[in-house]
Structures are given as structure tokens and as C-alpha cells.
Write a structure and sequence with these properties.
InterPro entries: Cyt_P450, Cyt_P450_CS, Cyt_P450_E_grp-I, Cyt_P450_sf, Cytochrome_P450_monoxygenase. Keywords: Heme, Iron, Membrane, Metal-binding, Monooxygenase, Oxidoreductase, Transmembrane, Transmembrane helix. GO terms for molecular function: heme binding; iron ion binding; monooxygenase activity; oxidoreductase activity, acting on paired donors, with incorporation or reduction of molecular oxygen. Helices cover 54% and strands 7% of the residues. The protein has a 5-stranded mixed sheet. The protein has helices spanning 3-6, 14-39, 49-53, 56-63, 67-78, 96-101, 132-143, 148-153, 155-174, 181-198, 204-207, 212-230, 237-242, 246-268, 276-286, 291-305, 307-322, 324-337, 346-349, 353-365, 399-403, 447-464, 473-478; strands at residues 81-85, 88-91, 111-112, 179-180, 375-376, 382-384, 387-389, 394-396, 465-469, 492-497.
Length: 504
């Protein structure tokens, strides 16, 4: 008796087998999508169904450098709290800042999201990656280096670097050369942070070109984005990470090696020079931090303190140049307080209200870090701005979306420094929604250093030079930097030395 006459079912041929597999995969994907949209613990929160279905839309937005616009569009349609991926909420209400980033009554702050702060991003011994217990210890070891007293003692380093920046721009102005301030601000900020962190400049200003490490840093940001995207697709994240170009991963590692090499040279150098490392070395003797940990903080200082400051300065200059009445008012404030450029110092610039307002408005309308730093809700869940968010969910505050929301700010897309000076037109603004350096125990340790650097550089640039844009402003604004990256259009200007205030 053969199979054809036995009445038994015949084995499926090869084609049928793969059809069954394909049908099974489709059914599995369909079940996951259906669960994510209708039955997931976050299903009650508003947002596009395509965002709820899978992480693909948010991943594509990140890869395209348009995550901030992706999130903003969702908030404009759905409100202050939006589901932007199956397990992630974006929140822009002012009350969410403390709930997400600060200590909550007797509870610790929410932990960092392991997708964003993944174990392939930076060394786990750094301040960025340390758990809460070690973070407190490491932060304590670094606080003295960033204190107001320490920065005052280190002011000669800031002044020396900014003055060199001025002299280099002066040379270009005298030669009638167009200048890409985007690049030159990068030269200045990398040189400055290198001098503060390692006791030696990268000499970008002297050579009028990027040090090789600058590209390592910028590549690191790009690799970080790729790693964050692949980690959205657990448990396939490790496999997907293996598909990333080996050259990019090597550049990230090269950045780390170079940082270690420079900080080790600085530690071994017998010098009484005051810089970040000199203050951290004092805590080394107390046992607060190990030498290995000290060395690993250097790469974080470079990443956090250079490119972001350059981006802010680029935008501040751009907005001043396209708003001549604002430029005139800033120049008037400078001339009212100083008789010559040499009088401009950190103590005096921190008394200039309009300069401070220009910096604040720049950070509001064009934040260098647009999308914030996500956190994970504990297993028991948490109340965030009046909403119960289930355990395991990821929550984040998008700086860009919060700062450009009409629910928080009048004329949200206009550059208006007056909003920070008590102008009645902006008295309804929700100023607490603006937190460019974050809040809580993991807020930016270098806030004062960044502010001092930006104010000093911008004040001296405006004091010394008349500037005129040499670009199509509409095109530049349309292609404005969407995240920290050098792969953006240059900010070309023509420079002309100003006459002394008395004859200007």
C-alpha cells in the first residue's frame, strides 16, 4: 500500500513548507502589532497608530536626523504627552521635569533608559554610564573642577583661548576673507576644552583646521545614534550592532584611546597649572575616585563641552545677524558697560542681562541637544505630571518640542530675547518648561563653564567685528543643524573690524 492510496496526509513539499513559515512570520508580526496598538500597557496614551505599532518610524526619524521634528509634529497634534514608539512616551509639560529627572519625594530618580545609554555607547566607568551610587561619588570628585571658584581661578585659560580666536578672525577680516563661523567656533571650543581638560590645546585655531580628534568626536555622535537605533530592536540589538561599519566603531574607540593618552600625559606632568585635571587629582588622594576612573572622565568632558557650545554660538550669531535690532541692543549694552575690549571678563559679562537673554533665547529656539535623555519607569510604575505611567516604560522630554510649543511660549518660533526680561507680551510664558541643562542629580555639571564660554566668546566677537551674512538665510535655516554634527551647511560671514565705541 502506498501513500497515495492509504488515505494519510502527504508530507508538504519544500514550497509549502516555506509558505507555512512565511504565514507564521506574518501572523506573529501581526499579533505583535495588534498587541502594541490595542493591548500594550501604553495603549491608552495618544499618538499615531504607526508609532505605537513598531519602533521602525522612530528609528527612521533618528537615522534621518529629524527626530526632533518627528516628535514635535506628534505633540502639535496629540498634546503634551504622546506615545512615539511601542514602549516610549514623549512629554513636554513643565511639571514633568522633576518627575522624570529629579528625586520624587522619597523615591530615587528614574533610571536611565538602557536603549539610549546602552553598554556599547561609552565606558561604564564614566559619569554618564555610572549607576546612581557611583554617579554620586564620581560627580563629587568632579564638582570642585566646575565650581564658581575654580572657574574664576581658571579664567586666564578662557581669556587666552578667546583672545587667540579674536586675533585669528582679525587676520581674516584684514585679508577680506569670508569666514565659516560654524567651523571657527568649533576650532575655538575644541581648543578651549582641550586646554581645560588636558592642559594642552588641540591647536585648531593656530593651524586653522580641525585636529584629527575633532572628527573622532563627531563620528562618536554619529555612532551613538546608530547604537541607540539598533538597541531599539532587542533582542536583535547585538546582531544588528555587528552590521555597523567597522570603520565607525574603530573611530569611536580611537576617540577613547586618544582621550586616555592625553589625560595620562597630563596626570604625569608635574605642574601647578590650574585646570580640570588638577582639581580632580586632589580627590584622587582622598580615595573618592580611582586613577582609572579619572582617566575615563576625560572623553566625556570632550564630548559634552565642545561641539554643543559651538552649535549654540553658531545659532546665536545667526539670529543676531538676521535680527539687526537685537544686535544693536546687545552692542549698546556692551558699549554701556565697557570702554574697551580688554575690560570684558567673566565677572562683568555675567551682569549683562541682555547678553544672558540672547543666550537663553538661543538655547530655547535652537537647543544643541534637541531630544533630551530618556529614563525608564520602575516596575511599580510612576506618576508623571499627573499621569500614571506603567513600569518598564520609557519617558523623555523633548527640548525642541517643549521649547517650541505654543502651549508654553508666545511666538514660539520667533527669536525674542525680551521674553526673558519681563516684557509683558511674554508674561504668560511657562518659563519652567525651559531646562536646557536639565534638572536633578544628573543635570549638566558644566553649566557655568558653558555659559561663561558662550558669553565671553559672543561678547568679544560682537564687540570687535561688524558681520554680514554671506549665505542664503532661508536655505541655511531650513538646513539648520538638527543634531550635533559637522555635516551641516557653513555659516559664512564677511568680517569688518569695528571702530572704537566713541566713533562707531
Amino acid at each position: 500500500m502506498n501513500a497515495s492510496t492509504s488515505g494519510n496526509v502527504q508530507p508538504a513539499d519544500g514550497t509549502s513548507f516555506w509558505v507555512y513559515i512565511l504565514v507564521g512570520i506574518v501572523c506573529a508580526i501581526g499579533s505583535i502589532v495588534c498587541y502594541n496598538i490595542y493591548f500594550h500597557p501604553l495603549a491608552k496614551f495618544p499618538g499615531p497608530k504607526s508609532y505605537a505599532a513598531s519602533a521602525i518610524p522612530v528609528a527612521l526619524a533618528q537615522l534621518g536626523g529629524r527626530f526632533h521634528l518627528f516628535t514635535q509634529a506628534a505633540h502639535e497634534k496629540y498634546g503634551s504627552i504622546v506615545r512615539i514608539s511601542p514602549n516610549e512616551l514623549s512629554i513636554i509639560s513643565a511639571g514633568a521635569w522633576d518627575d522624570v529627572y529629579a528625586r520624587r519625594l522619597k523615591n530615587p530618580p528614574l533610571v536611565r533608559d538602557p536603549t539610549f545609554f546602552n553598554d556599547m555607547l561609552v565606558d561604564p566607568r564614566t559619569l554618564t554610564m555610572a549607576d546612581d551610587t557611583n554617579h554620586i561619588r564620581l560627580r563629587k570628585s568632579m564638582n570642585s573642577a566646575f565650581s564658581a571658584r575654580a572657574l574664576a581661578e581658571q579664567e586666564p585659560i578662557l581669556k587666552e583661548n578667546v583672545d587667540l580666536f579674536m586675533d585669528k578672525l582679525e587676520e581674516r577680516a584684514q585679508q577680506g576673507l569670508e569666514t565659516d563661523l560654524r567651523s571657527w567656533y568649533n576650532y575655538a571650543t575644541f581648543d578651549l576644552i582641550g586646554d581645560f581638560a588636558f592642559g594642552e590645546s588641540f591647536r585648531c585655531l593656530e593651524s586653522s583646521q580641525y585636529h584629527e580628534w575633532v572628527q573622532f568626536v563627531l563620528d562618536h555622535f554619529y555612532v551613538a545614534t546608530l547604537l541607540q537605533v539598533v538597541h531599539r530592536f532587542r533582542p536583535l540589538n547585538k546582531l544588528l550592532a555587528m552590521l555597523l561599519p567597522a570603520s565607525l566603531i574603530e573611530k569611536k574607540e580611537a576617540h577613547h584611546r586618544m582621550a586616555l593618552d592625553k589625560v595620562r600625559r597630563r596626570v604625569q606632568r608635574d605642574t601647578k597649572r590650574l585646570d580640570f585635571i588638577s582639581y580632580m587629582l586632589k580627590t584622587l588622594d582622598t580615595g573618592t575616585i580611582t586613577l582609572d576612573e579619572l582617566e575615563n572622565q576625560a572623553s566625556i568632558i570632550i564630548l559634552a563641552g565642545s561641539e554643543t557650545t559651538a552649535v549654540a554660538l553658531t545659532f546665536a550669531t545667526y539670529f543676531l545677524l538676521v535680527n539687526p535690532q537685537i544686535m544693536d541692543r546687545l552692542l549698546e549694552e556692551l558699549h554701556s558697560n565697557f570702554e574697551n575690549e580688554g575690560q570684558i571678563d567673566v565677572l562683568s559679562i555675567n551682569k549683562l542681562n541682555y547678553l544672558q537673554a540672547v543666550i537663553q533665547e538661543t538655547l530655547r529656539i535652537a537647543p544643541p541637544i534637541t531630544n533630551g535623555f530618556p529614563r525608564q519607569v520602575p516596575p511599580e510604575g510612576a506618576m508623571i505630571d499627573g499621569h500614571f505611567v506603567p513600569g518598564g516604560s520609557v519617558v523623555n522630554i523633548s527640548h525642541w518640542s517643549a521649547y517650541r510649543s505654543a502651549s508654553h511660549f508666545s511666538k514660539p518660533n520667533e527669536f525674542c530675547p525680551e521674553r526673558w526680561l519681563g516684557d509683558s507680551l511674554f508674561e504668560g510664558d511657562t518659563k519652567d518648561a525651559f531646562q536646557p541643562f536639565s534638572v536633578g542629580p544628573r543635570n549638566c555639571i558644566g553649566k557655568k563653564f558653558a555659559n561663561d564660554s558662550m558669553k565671553m566668546t559672543l561678547a568679544k566677537t560682537v564687540w570687535r567685528f561688524k558681520m554680514k551674512l554671506a549665505i542664503n538665510t532661508e536655505e541655511w535655516l531650513r538646513d539648520m543643524p538638527s543634531f550635533v554634527s559637522l555635516h551641516q551647511p557653513p555659516l559664512l560671514v564677511s568680517l569688518e573690524p569695528r571702530k572704537p565705541p566713541s566713533s562707531d
